[in-house]
Amino acid sequence: MPLPTTMKAALLTDYHTPLEMAEVPVPKIGSDEVLVRIEASGLCFTDVHIWKGEHAPPSLPLIMGHEGIGRVVAVGSTATRFQVGDRVGIGYVYGACGHCRDCRMGGENYCSDFTATGYATQGCFAEYVALKDQWASKIPNGIDAIEAAPLMCAGAAAYASLKKTGVQVGDTVAIFGMGGLGQYCVQLAKLSGLRVIAVDVADDKLATAKTLGADECFKADEATGAAIQELGGAHGCVNFAPVTATWPMMLDACSPRATIVLTGVPAGEMAFYTYQVVERGLMVRGSSASNRQEMAELLSIAAGGRVKGVINAVPFAQINEALLDLNAGKVEGRTVLTMEDTS
After folding, report:
1. Any idea of the CA torsion for 304, 118, 93, 342, to the nearest 10 degrees?
2. Coarse DSSP helix, strand, coil percentages of the chain, rounded to the nearest 5 percent
3. Residues 11-61 pLDDT 10s
4. 157, 183 Cβ separation under 8 angstroms
């Protein structure tokens, strides 16, 4: 059956305005690319930043979206990893140079030539998307499209952040911010044999964290760090909350030689006294997205159904309502846009 020549897509044509539902040409693939028919696509807060112009893309109009799951429907002449019919995932990393020091050492997501899906290239808020076959992820059996979509960014970012803490089995990790990333991180931390402390300002989110396996839950306030210290302190802290208020809490909560990983991006500056880091030998690391190895590891863990998202499935036609709800903070967990066929 021949492929269609046009497709439905949600176009960002101007900031702070509804996405335009339009009929646009189906992407033509290069020799090293595959064409994927989208089944489900996650809505990420990065999309909100792009929509508001806070993370302005190189050009408009733009098809956003970087948490896509679908089936390969066409393969380029030099693409060798996939066949028509394979289910693949599309993440934030569209591509990188592949030969710099960072790329060669597993840091392709920090490459200076890093290209982002749904930002510098057309993304997944459409019926079809083209991507380089070397950067697509094979989706294992046992994960449906709706569950898999948020793993391509939120789940992978949570997993990469947790790994950067360097914590070992039996250690304590404190996770700040129980949105979608925090919820994934709680589950992954428990599967790693860690003692998990969840921190958030919202009681309902802490209750969800408890059901996902958190050993202890604390309301975020000035006493949080001292409360964690009473339990022996945290060997690692991960911050997914986009606020500066968590910074002093993490400094207070840390055990000697602990690692703080910053993933959430507050708008304000964070300050500290040097002795707070030096005297206890603390390490502070940033974490953005994930590399392909981390993505593969995460999908392998999730294949057995051991990692479940708190997911709100929404028809693709309601993308503008879903975008507004996410911007207004009305969404718990992750939003996934579904196409008509999610088989």
Report:
1. 20
2. 30, 30, 45
3. 999 999 999 999 999 999 999 999 999 999 999 989 999 999 998 999 999
4. no
